Amino acid sequence: MRPDDITRATEPVFAHNPWLQVYLDDVVVGGLPSQRLRLVESGGVPGVVILPLRGAHVGMVRQYRVVLGEDVWELPRGFGEAADPVQDASRELAEETGLAAASWVSLGTVLPNSGLSAGAVRLFLARVGQTRDLDAMDDEVDTFAWWPVSRLRAAIEADEIRDGFTLAAFLRADLRGLLPKD
Predict the structure, then answer these.
(1) How many CB atoms within 10 Å of residue 99?
(2) Other CB atoms within 10 A of residue 171 CB
(3) Distance between CA atoms of 92 and 101, rounded to whole angstroms?
(4) What percent of the chain has pLDDT over 90?
(5) Alpha-carbon distance values, 159 to 96, 106, 155, 173 (Å)
(6) Pairing outcome for strands 57-65 and 47-54
(7) Packed helices 149-157 and 164-175: angle between N→C axes, nearest 10 degrees
(8) What structural domains and CATH numbers belong to the chain?
(9) In the prediction, which pLDDT does 134 show?
């Protein structure tokens, strides 16, 4: 689409869920009428992904992902709810790991699927200590584990880590020199 392409009408297809809305947009693309599906997560508030870092270890969570039918190791993440993304990141970090960050580093934003989703996800590195508040955790995560950065790097290279958000946050942190080298 080009800037002169326009949306003529938007019809909610599935809009009663607070976490995901689906719209059917009537658009003009290259002068021709067309229709496009558009997904909006969390009312358009960007989600968050957190790379918890303690020394040379990254905090990873394992969750059963129903849509995949398998357990997946990934970084903690969640939907956006607040105007301040660090507030969302703090909440998700506590809920999924029981950890609190001593400091935050923004790793930028990713667009999960710019051809279908209107959503964005903000990436953060959280420098954390050893203390965990297990009472702060919800039951969403099956397992939490500290992985050496070298193990995570090897798992990514071996195609054992396939979660796009984990890959994006790891790459951004690594390119900025924020992760220890093997």
Answers:
(1) 24
(2) 15
(3) 11
(4) 61
(5) 24, 26, 6, 19
(6) antiparallel
(7) 120
(8) 6-42 (no CATH), 45-175 (3.90.79.10)
(9) 72
- Joined together, the tokens standing for residue 5 give 């392409």
Rounded to whole angstroms, the Cα distance separating 34 from 167 reads 34
Token duo for residue 69: 């039918």
Q: Which string of DSSP letters, residue by residue, matches the chain?
A: --TT-EEEEEEEEE---SSEEEEEEEEEETTEEEEEEEEEEGGG--EEEEEEEETTEEEEEEEEETTTTEEEEE--EE---SSSHHHHHHHHHHHHHS--EEEEEEEEEE-TTTTTB---EEEEEEEE-S---GGG--SS-SEEEEEEHHHHHHHHHTT----HHHHHHHHHHHHTT-S---
Tell me the pTM: 0.88
Q: Which pair of tokens denotes residue 131?
A: 């203390």
Distance CA 146, CA 138 (A): 18
Q: Per residue in 100-151, pLDDT tens?
A: 999 999 999 999 998 888 889 999 999 998 888 777 777 888 899 999 999 9
Per-residue pLDDT tens digits for 23-64: 898 888 888 888 988 888 888 889 999 999 999 999 999 999
Q: Report in angstroms the alpha-carbon separations of 72 from 32, 105, 111.
A: 42, 25, 21
Of 82, 122, 129, give the one whose Cα is nearest residue 106.
122
Instruction: Name 28's bridge partners.
Output: 6, 33
